Here is the input.
Amino acid sequence: MADAEAVPASERQVDKSSLMTKLETTTHLFLIGLCCLAGGLLIEQRFFRPPEAETVSPRDLVGRAVELPGADWQAAPFSVLLQISSTCHFCNESMPFYKQLMAARQSQAARIPVIVASGDAVSIMRKYLEDHQVIVDKVLHSRLQSFRTGTPTIYIVDSKGLVRRAFIGELDSSGEKELLSIIERGKV
Here is the structure.
């Protein structure tokens, strides 16, 4: 206590203002650093990230050639190509329809080949399809990046390897009926 009384009041005032100055300085430096970080992230996102995939209409895909090593388009008048992913929640929600689609194609005399193209490893995709009881003819590892579509996307591909119809995203009931009709008729 004697030491505190020995220090004049004016010097004690200086210590408090000095302490406040250090706290303010630290706060200001922190805020400046935070602003620099936020600005850097905005610049990085704006200039250094690839642009998002453009919105593609199914009509834009019609007539385009599908280059997919391992697919034999000439094996049938047309084939169904599913572009799906095991981590896509729309694909998961569509699995009951894919199962129905496979049953419809099994009942046809002229069997329509179904090929799955996925960015997943072939073994992972086969297990995924097996778990959902969706039986396909072939599973290939490919992202079909030239089409700029996401998952799920269903293509009807003719014997020349050209897209005749495309269904992008999770189908509504009219899209499902249309695709089932194509499979049941055996004609695009």
Summary: Strands lie at 78-83, 114-118, 138-141, 153-158, 163-168. The chain is about 45% helix and 15% strand. Residues 86 and 125 are 6 Å apart (CA to CA).
